[in-house]
Amino acid sequence: MLADLAGIGRDPTTGGYRRHVWNDADMLLREWFVGEAAARGMDVVEDGNGNQLAWWGSPGPDALLTGSHLDSVPDGGAYDGPLGVVSSFAAIDRLRADGFTPSRPVVVGSFADEEGARFGIACAGSQLVTGALAADRALAQKDRDGLTMAEVMAARGRDPRAVGRADWLGDIGTFVELHVEQGRSLVHSGAPVGVATAIWPHGRWRLDFCGEANHAGATLMQDRHDPMQAYAATVLASRRLATEASARATFGRLEVEPGGTNAIPSRVRAWLDARASDDESLEHLVEQVVAEARAASDLDGTSVEVTAESVSPAVDFDVPLRDRLAELLDAPVLPTGAGHDAGVLSAHVPTAMLFVRNPTGVSHSPVEHADDGDCEAGVVALAAVMRELAS
Ligand SMILES: [Zn+2]
Fold it and tell me: Class of 2-200+314-389 per CATH?
């Protein structure tokens, strides 16, 4: 199944994936999902948010949900997301081959727009289902071409009025998401599969550094109101502050206006991705970065506006479920600094995550990898978990 997906949305120059919600690659992935479900006699329901659900058995209460997402970050890898969906189908194949019949409905989910690469809000599909993200806010989000989510969905034949809370969530009794590890904890513990304890709180903040455009040659250095200077100082400060706090701060996206080589910028728009081990530390880190940005802006007579685009609080996964799975699989437990749909759903249903070893720990990059043997171990583990929870 991973081989079938390998060519979809892959950029030939970078080797990375550009599978962004409702783009051509995303539409092909949706077709693939429907095809895999159909091949197993599973009915697919797509909710108003674009989340796909393939039911083993009739939809009904107390269902066991597994799955993950198929979309990617810009130039993402092959495993972040798809591994969880593929492993869910493969685990069902194993259980069926053993003659196993679940005692509760089992459903494979593929969540829409987990990475938020197009509209800027991570886990949009799951957040809309739970109501954590308001439909009108999501629908008004614009992509880089200036198209709103509502326009993009309508162009794909989806009804924007259907976006929002979905009834199916009430039928889910447990959610288990399998995911490639985004770190090297499992390498250090020598285990192919682990069980998640918690997700760090994280968020995205947009910083608009505003100054005055002018000529790169004719404007004296002391006469400039160049917002790039404050931006650069903020990046350096964020590294120092995050390092001191054992937290994470990343500026990975930047837009410069007017964007001329020989022009002082009028505006630098930058996105801060920040994460820390607890909510208070994260808040403190962002406050400090913003304070540095304001101080640096003041020096140049420029200004900075800060907008919190999305903030996800810390998630502690269901402890009895986590302990039960760790014992069942004889697997180590580990926290993660990456966000997941499982984190969103965990506020509503008992939720667990399984991680599959990633030898380099690299993720959100074309070099993201998991060995076939470890992927297989993930499937075996997920099948054991499904048998345990649906017997
Ligand atoms: Zn993911």
Answer: alpha beta
